[in-house]
Amino acid sequence: MKFDLHDVPERVSTGTLPAPDLVEEFVEEAHQxxxxxxxxxxxxxxxxxxxxxxxxxxxxxxxxxxxxxDAGDTDHAFSIQSISKAFVxxxxxxxxxxxxxxxxxxxxxxxxxxxxxxxxxxNEGHPMNPMxxxxxxxxxxxxxxxxxxxxxxxxxxxxxxxxxxxxxxxDVYRSExxxxxxxxxxxxxxxxxxxxxxxxxxxVDVYTKQCSLLVTARDLAVMGATLADGGVNPxxxxxxxxxxVCRDTLAVLAANGLYERxxxxxxxxxxxxxxxxxxxxVTVAPGKAGIGVFSPPLDDAGNSVRGKQATAFLSRALGxxxxxxxxxxxxxxxxxxxxxxxxxxxxxxxxxxxxxxxDQEA
Length: 362
Ligand code: GLN
Known about the structure:
Blueprint: H1 20-34, E1 58-63, E2 68-72, E3 78-79, H2 83-96, H3 98-105, H4 118-122, H5 133-141, H6 147-162, E4 167-168, H7 170-178, H8 181-192, H9 200-211, E5 213-215, H10 217-228, H11 243-256, H12 262-268, E6 273-275, E7 280-285, E8 289-294, H13 305-318, H14 328-341, H15 347-361
Antiparallel strand pairs: 1-2, 1-8, 3-5, 4-5, 6-7, 7-8
Glutamine (GLN) binds next to loops.
């Protein structure tokens, strides 16, 4: 579907987070209420992931001003896995632009597991979207250069999102490389359809490396906050990608970030997220904050069980769901009544509060 909006200036409306001490409290609560949650199993199809401690659990929120709120194991390093797909997609969008990325990779959900070969066949060789392996491999293949050049470009870009030099987990890389025949098959299939124009095995190797970069839950929150902040890392203040790239990336995450559970995620959480098989999830509240969670046990689609619950709690408690609203008149009345109780409140303050409430609904 083509939309001709190039000459329409974009107006942005997001809202604000609650006060920092409340955010701190809710992050603590998100951790506490889910710490003893059981269920799910640690991924073992990549042997190096099978050793992860199932009890690890970290929750981090970084807002667009760079303030961080952490609870639990937010400094524990794990391989980023599929979450890299979101950020590599953003980097490639920045390079290729909206239309070219849309045409080459697509944006629609497959409704099938992330490593499905059937989805490619059913769609006549189209990779469908950048959050399943077919689309992620296609996206990686579109990074400038070949082989090592592409890897360095991606590595540098992901590090800019995190605001620090990320390090490769060599054990995870080797472990996945030894057993990634399925990804090789997907890349070969895409090559046969003319969708990958570079050496498919080299593309798989770069993709495997990008998945093996080590991050923490805190890093994920910073990376998410960069997408929430129009592409500027709120800690380093570096512009990593353009605002329209964040908008496009988040739309793709909303539709595809939690694989075949993406509809369920949007229904319960109401903001875009991206999960990975090592147990991380990054979630983004545009204009407000990034959330990074980590806990290795996964549901049967590959999403962290505790991570999903903690993020859903935060979305509700912090007012992040982009689909939620209150009646404007009632919100204004509450603000007016509160202000009347407060002797010092000026008319201007009353207006501001009513406006804040309506902003949060936007
Ligand atoms: N590197 C993993 C793979 O390609 C990533 C999968 C994931 O996190 N869902 O299989």
